[in-house]
Write a structure and sequence with these properties.
Layout: H1 10-17, H2 28-51, H3 57-79, H4 82-116, H5 122-126, H6 140-171, H7 176-189, H8 193-208, H9 215-239, H10 243-251, H11 256-283, H12 288-293, H13 312-321, H14 327-359
Helix pairs in contact: 2-3, 3-4, 4-14, 6-9, 6-11, 6-13, 7-9, 8-9, 9-11, 10-11, 11-14, 13-14
Amino acid sequence: MTATLTPPSTSARSASTSLTTGHLPSWGPWAILGASLVVVGIFFGVIAAASGDALNIPAWLILSAVAYLVLITAVSAAVEGRRKSVDRLVTGVVTVAFLIAMVPLVSVAFTVITLGAPSWSGEFFSSSMRNVVGEGGGALHAIMGTVLITLAAAVISIPIGIFTAIYLIEYGQGKRLAQGITFLVDVMTGIPSIVAGLFAYALFALFLGPGIRLGIMGSVALAVLMIPVVVRSTEEMLRLVPNELREASYALGVPKWLTIAKVVLPTAIAGITTGVMLSISRVIGETAPLLITAGFTASMNYDLFNGRMQTLPVFTYTQYMNQGIPAEAFVGRAWASALTLIVIVMLLNLVARLIAKFFAPKTGR
């Protein structure tokens, strides 16, 4: 008896060999997005032509995004099924939210660059505003004031913040004092910057009298704002250090303070450095506390303990709010100062990333 093998039907072969059945092609979502933009654009174009107004670009983009989400969900449900359609809907919502969040960031960066870059010049970075009443002058005194005040604030706040975090993680677990410090750090994290400025002013006014303005007062005000950020970031980094490393060090007879100095801190140094840099970036642009404590001046001042000291945020504020003749020169210097401050913050964040990458523990063999 001979058995005959019947070959599978053509439809069965095509069904088993097809790898794209039930999936939209890769160009499908882009085609739906393009169609949404075109259709909604035509709709708004007709309305604009009928009313004689310009095309409402924000409304066009928003309605196009809504139309895309509806269409991609419906098409995906018909072709790929309910689970995939929900996945595409959520992906689209997240993407739209990301684009909306990028709009103010890109807008601010574009505005500051276009308005501030034309006022950048050699004179702007090499001279102060002493004896300048109109065009000319620069922000060298403000740049130096920002660097000196921020550096002094870092010198004050970084040791205090790191040592506080070490106590909370290594020594104060479960103690009432540690709980109280944690509560105070949480409160300090949310205080307005103007309160820090008033605190520094009141503190120095007790010893030096009212009306005093010093660069070191601005450093103290910024340090009050930096300390909770440094404490929180260092605390989280120390928590990430495995307890096995501490126990191995203790097993070798190493005392606790040396274990912290030689094992715990080197392991967490990358994250700690990143947190410190971010705390500096957070306070370097503060205006209100520096306006109260350091004041403003048109001359160079390298002494934190003698006289008023100009900073970039205060320089930007005073140039824009106290416009003289010609007003364009004052506004241009304000935008150039704002751009300089943004570049400094960007460089600080870049340095933080490089340090974190350089000091990160090596996990490979």
